[in-house]
């Protein structure tokens, strides 16, 4: 249901004849959503707002055509940063091909592929305004170094290159496939996805880093949600700040002889506890082929593939 770039869901001029800016569009969008909600029932089985009043996005809580059309007016440039180091290049084809079918269709998207093996980057037919940019990074002997190294190489490359080429940036795992629409409803200053494994559990069960020695430490009585580090996004500069934070905090940990329980995911969760995301995406935005789909997940938009951890990682499983 991709919206056409030329259709206009709302007035584009203000009363004094000047063009509307992006905040105005979003305000109009909120009003339109309110009107729609008079005619169509909202989801009543899930929360659609967080306790700090950020939208919590589920299928059935937004109008896909309207929201795509509003963001399309701004025609943002979206960067997707993915790493495919060692054997993980095998996941590129499925990710890119399905991304072209479902990820921000009709928007300007550049996939930044960080790899140690450029020749294994597949040729994939891309839509108009969509590109691939390959960034060479070193190989690693430990998967933990690849996972954490993402923060270092992304920091350096955003600073040097991507900053000049994108308005929004997503960080994503490569071992996944798109199955459903992932559209402009995902865009915000800072968007984080609820980890499918913990969205129904209480905070003391979240796998936050619990050792006070780590910079990612979160005490048992704190926490809103547990977010996955496999899909997160936002304005370019806000994402730069957060990626760099994860990099610097993991460096401090390394100097103190500790590695956070879930590497950058632990630091990401610490940051988002004290700097609330402006949008939270339901686990529709990252499910897993390992788990059966419960009734509250109406659409699986991306799913993590089942993989043989021992075989695909340079130093074996978890
Ligand atoms: C669904 C989810 O919560 N995913 C998180 C979980 O990942 P996973 O257990 O899914 O880890 P993973 O093996 O997918 O590694 C994360 C990503 O790093 C890249 N990679 C990794 C190893 C390698 O040899 N080559 C390579 O390119 C690749 O993009 C991969 O998708 O835990 C990791 C930290 O432990 C990260 O926080 C992931 O975001
Ligand atoms: Mn993964």
From TrEMBL:
The keyword Disulfide bond does not apply. Signal peptide: none annotated. This is Globoside alpha-1,3-N-acetylgalactosaminyltransferase 1-like. An alpha-L-fucosyl-(1->2)-beta-D-galactosyl derivative binds at residues 195, 265. GO terms for biological process: carbohydrate metabolic process. It holds the Pfam family Glyco_transf_6. Belongs to the glycosyltransferase 6 family. Binds 1 Mn(2+) ion per subunit. Mn(2+) binds at residues 173, 175.
């Amino acid at each position: 249901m991709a919206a056409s770039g030329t259709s206009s869901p709302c007035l584009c001029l203000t009363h004094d004849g000047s063009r509307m800016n992006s905040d105005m569009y979003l305000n109009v969008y909120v009003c339109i959503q309110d009107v729609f909600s008079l005619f169509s029932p909202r989801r009543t089985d899930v929360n659609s707002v967080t306790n700090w009043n950020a939208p919590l996005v589920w299928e059935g809580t937004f109008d896909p055509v309207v929201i795509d059309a509003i963001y399309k007016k701004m025609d943002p440039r979206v960067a997707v940063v993915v790493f495919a180091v060692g054997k993980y290049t095998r996941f590129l084809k499925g990710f890119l091909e399905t991304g072209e079918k479902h990820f921000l269709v009709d928007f300007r998207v550049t996939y930044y592929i960080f790899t140690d093996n450029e020749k294994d980057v597949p040729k994939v037919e891309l839509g108009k305004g969509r590109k691939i940019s390959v960034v060479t990074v070193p190989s690693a002997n430990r998967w933990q170094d690849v996972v954490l190294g993402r923060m270092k190489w992304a920091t350096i490359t955003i600073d040097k290159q991507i900053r000049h080429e994108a308005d929004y940036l997503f960080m994503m795992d490569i071992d996944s496939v798109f199955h459903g629409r992932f559209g402009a409803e995902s865009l915000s200053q800072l968007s984080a996805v609820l980890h499918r494994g913990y969205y129904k559990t209480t905070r003391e069960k979240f796998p936050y880093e619990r050792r006070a020695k780590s910079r990612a430490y979160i005490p048992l009585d704190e926490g809103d949600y547990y977010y996955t580090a496999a899909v997160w996004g936002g304005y370019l500069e806000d994402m730069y700040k957060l990626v760099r934070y994860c990099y610097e905090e993991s460096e401090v940990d390394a100097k103190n002889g500790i590695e956070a329980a879930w590497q950058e995911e632990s630091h990401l969760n610490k940051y988002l506890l004290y700097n609330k995301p402006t949008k939270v995406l339901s686990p529709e935005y990252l499910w897993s082929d390992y788990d059966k789909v419960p009734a509250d997940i109406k659409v699986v938009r991306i799913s993590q593939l089942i993989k043989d951890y021992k075989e695909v990682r340079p130093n074996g499983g978890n």
